[in-house]
Design goal:
The protein is an alpha+beta fold. Helix content is 37%, strand content 15%. It is built from nine helices and seven strands; from the N terminus they run ββββαβααααααααββ.
Length: 250
């Protein structure tokens, strides 16, 4: 079975918060292959259940086209493919003659105490592969484990918990590359290097890279918001950025 690096969502159901009711989500009816370019591969998926944040974007005012990037399951695609995907999305949306917002989510450096598929026990592998819809008891137990780990991490340090430490210098340097539009440097980042410097879950920065690469297709942009803070209690480097381009749509 081949690996899936990213896919475009056509339809599915979503909710803003795990305790909220489900609602339907229908993406614009486009041909997913319109996003393709040499070196970029993606699939179109129907009846997907996106995470809560994606559900929070659902509304009757705007069309939403979710794109999911694999940031967990190995083998992970090289970063140049992620930058290429973002560029293809940007070039496609330029043809729509509409105002477009690119929204990306994902952590910076963080290495939460979760099992890895390569070293997981059979029960852990089952949870990782099929454990998306947890029961209330299972979800509560997982949340309590992570909260306890965050408290221990903040109090005693990463070594006490057995995970990698946060890396504010790496986080800020990555954000600076995006702000400067240095996509050559982003594309050159290696999978092994990201894991070493930013932790097993640091690969979530792929969504940031794709979104800014898409924005760059509209021309030069200005970064209007740029905030960062390392939050040990969350076991994550937390940042947010906003950028805008005034380049008119061709």
């Amino acid at each position: 079975m081949r690996g899936l690096s990213f896919f475009v969502m056509y339809s599915g159901k979503a909710r803003v918060h795990p305790r909220c009711r489900w609602g339907t989500l229908d993406g614009p009816r486009i041909n997913a292959w319109a996003l393709a370019e040499p070196g970029v591969q993606q699939d179109a998926q129907q009846r997907v259940e996106p995470p809560p944040l994606a559900g929070g974007l659902v509304g009757e005012v705007v069309d939403v086209l979710p794109v999911f990037l694999n940031s967990v399951a190995v083998p992970l695609a090289p970063m140049n493919r992620i930058v290429g995907l973002g560029r293809a999305i940007g070039e496609f949306t330029r043809t729509l003659d509409r105002r477009v917002a690119f929204v990306a989510s994902g952590g910076l450096s963080h290495d939460p105490p979760l099992p890895q598929l390569s070293s997981a026990t059979p029960d852990q592998r089952e949870m990782l592969m099929r454990g998306r819809n947890l029961s209330a008891e299972q979800r509560s137990a997982r949340q309590n484990r992570v909260i306890a780990a965050g408290q221990a991490f903040a109090t005693h340090g990463a070594a006490h918990v057995g995970i990698r430490d946060l890396n504010p210098d790496w986080d800020i340097a990555f954000m600076d590359r995006l702000a400067a539009g240095d996509f050559d440097a982003v594309a050159a980042m290696s999978v092994a290097g990201i894991t070493c410097d930013a932790g097993n879950s640091g690969h979530e920065v792929r969504s940031w890279a794709a979104a800014f690469s898409a924005l760059a297709a509209f021309g030069e942009y200005d970064t209007t918001q740029h905030f960062y803070r390392a939050i040990p209690e969350w076991i994550a480097g937390f940042g947010c950025m906003a950028a805008i381009t005034y380049q008119p749509v061709a």
